[in-house]
Amino acid sequence: MIRSVFIILLGATLAGGMTSGCGGSTTPAARRSTARRGGPTATSPTPVEDHGRCDASGADREVSEYDTSGDSTPDVRRVFRRVGDPPVTRLVLSCREVDLNGDGVKDVIRYYSDDGRPQREESDRNFDGRLDTITVYQEGRVVRTERDANGDTRIDTKTFFDDRGEPVRIERDLAGRSTAEVWRPDRWEYFEDGRVVRMGTDVDGDAEGRVDRWDRDHQYAAPPGEGGADAAGSAEDVAASASP
């Protein structure tokens, strides 16, 4: 039977005793978490500024830890902010950290907005010690993911989602030309009904990032003799890809 450990500690008692994986802590766990992410490069998926959301040392903070694997070691940590004045107060989730593989280092860190909605998540999905996936939320729903798909510590793939959580477009930087300031994709993949229906590629790598070749799903291709429609669609696709 899975044993769980659930600890509630008032934030005021945590300044010297609780190790943390984020929030600017200088504890060994925090340093270890930063080290495994690796030093940021020009386009590396560096951790977001969390504005202290994972810091449990404030008097208005409470933290809970619990064990989901049954090894008697907590692997999930949640930080709450206490909102309101006594006797009417409530707890709002601020940060959630998870150690998925039990190595003592947090692999997933999710930050929440002031009203307790998911805002951003950073994760190391392949457990190589480096951050490889960022998930961005708006109004509590996923709107974009950013991934280091080839493991070179650089963001190279961005996926955009609609209101239903379905992917509508994937942008890829195959040539690795992007910087921290400028995203320069050279491939755009568009979805309809959950499948890729057209894919544009910037073959020559020009500075404008224009599509040179379009590949389309045959079921969605323009009927024979309507080549002009395909050209018009290309212009619209390039314009859409330029403003994610």
Describe the structure in brief.
By secondary structure, the protein is mainly beta. The chain contains 2 helices and 13 strands, in the order βαββββββββββββα.
Number of E-type strands = 13
The separation of the N and C termini measures 47 Å
Largest beta-sheet characterization: 13 strands, antiparallel
Helix proportion range: 10-25%
Shape: elongated
Which value, in Å, is the CA radius of gyration?
A: 22 Å
Low-confidence stretches: 1-44, 223-244
Query: What's the helix-strand series?
Result: EHEEEEEEEEEEEEH
Strand order of the largest sheet: 1-2-3-4-5-6-7-8-9-10-11-12-13
Q: Given the helix and strand composition, which structural class is it? A: mainly beta
What does this molecule look like?
- This protein is mainly beta and 244 residues long.
- It has a domain at 1-112.
- The protein contains 2 helices and 13 strands; from the N terminus they run E-H-E-E-E-E-E-E-E-E-E-E-E-E-H.
- The longest helix is centred in the last third of the chain and has 16 residues, at 227-242.
